Amino acid sequence: MLRRGIPDEAIDFVLEHYDQSRPAPPSNAAKPAVIYIGGFERRRLKVYVERDSNPPKIKTAVWEGD
Q1: How large is the average pLDDT for residues 25-45?
Q2: What is the largest CA-CA distance in the chain?
Q3: Per-domain residue ranges for the chain?
Q4: pTM of structure
Q5: Which residues pair with 33 in a beta bridge?
Q6: Given this model, what pLDDT does residue 42 score?
Q7: Mean pLDDT (whole number) for 34-54
Q8: Quick one: how far is CA 23 from the chain centroid?
Q9: pLDDT at 54
């Protein structure tokens, strides 16, 4: 996420204030995930979290449109 220029505070903010969520497309090699989508500093961020993880296990995050 550092390579993508996504600060930890952006991930925390989206997980607390997301406006959309949906299951991530299935992958043969990965555990199921949920995508949380929300705004941070005028950009949209998608945060992929392993389903049923507590605390949330962040798999990855990407800016929408990148």
Answers
A1: 92
A2: 34
A3: 8-63
A4: 0.89
A5: 50
A6: 94
A7: 96
A8: 11
A9: 92
